[in-house]
Amino acid sequence: MVTNYISGMTLRKYTYKLYPKPKQQSALLECLRLHQQLYNAALQERIEAYRKCGKTISYNDQQASLTRIREALPEYKALPCTSARMTLRRLDKAFKAFFRRVSKGETPGFPRFKSLSRFSSFELLTPTFSHSDTGQHGRLFLRGIGHIKARGQCRLQGTIKTSQIQHKHGHWWISLTVDGDARRPRNATRACAMDGGVAHLLTVVEESGRFEQIANPRYYRTGKANQAQLHQSVSRKKRGSNRWKNACRQLSTFKRKQANQSKDAHHKLAATIANTYALVAMEALRIKNMSRSAKGTAEQPGKNIKQKSGLNREIRDTAPASLMSMIRYKVEEAGGEFVETPTRQLKPSQRCPACEHTHKDNRKTQANFICTGCGFSQNADVVSGLNSLFWALGLGREHVPEAFASKPLLSSA
Ligand SMILES: [Zn+2]
Predict the structure, then answer these.
(1) Which residue among 191, 204, 282, 406 sits deepest, i.e. has the most Cβ atoms within 10 Å of its Cβ?
(2) What are the GO BP annotations of this UniProt entry (predicted)?
(3) How far, in Å, is the centroid of ligand 1 from the Cα of 350?
(4) Residue 36, domain extent
């Protein structure tokens, strides 16, 4: 979620739910439809120009013709010009991404025409949005539509940079990008290292040798059967029928609930960590490496594709990447420090903290570390975490604790 850090300023996204009246709802839907048609027309124009005369149309060309469109089709005058430009910009981004991937030798899908059900948002460059002093709830003003009540909370004082109106699951939302200083004075004093994995969501290690392993909440695994049933129920019905629509709605509600559940749990865990620790160390390549595509590339096909994609799926299910970024920004907001340790240089999962003997044979299995040099043995995730932490704190092997103990470290997690 954190997209930028410039001298303590942070860009952060907040979402408010909108409560439009029935008339406003149809007006919003009309706006969305205009944006969708503009997107499709601009796509059409690019395709035809290329097909007929081999000409490539740029964003600037299309932006210039926007004035003519607004003259010819008065309904487009209802949309703010900047907002319409953002939709053209979105198409431009889709094209740029397409050509970038083609030039890399990949085979991406060509930008597609979008039906209204697949076109769920439009941008507002300068929204007239006001909220209370605490950031809780507010009102959005749209020209020609009026004031719309909004519920939600923005915890960052700052200026609104961009915003997006979204239509999801039959509800309307506004998401704001706010620029401000998010840091608070520091309360926590302890240091720890974290290691994420498949067997456990997180392993937290302190330099005293105390550690805690936080189990994976397997919402997806338990929910998988239900989801499969709902999928089946959709595919058994006639596409476009009322019963089909109903089944689709049930499926999307289910998915949304699962995603919310996991996001909520991650927020709580990250908040507890930020309140407990002033320094959190983490291996830089941990997540990147583990969830890299199992297929590999054409030149370097991956090994054990089947096992790895299973592993990738499980990693995705527990969504550690999003959890890590959440921990990172919450720790930094709380005035703490998040240290990435250099994986290649340090090799934390192969290094023995007691004698510094570093070899891949030290890690016999995914779970156990046994040093082939001195016989030191411990849980592999704990060893890896301890190495990262010692590196971050500048501690040597003489500080390796005599005993390790599994203790609850995160009281209110
Ligand atoms: Zn050793």
Answers:
(1) 204
(2) DNA recombination; transposition
(3) 10
(4) 1-182
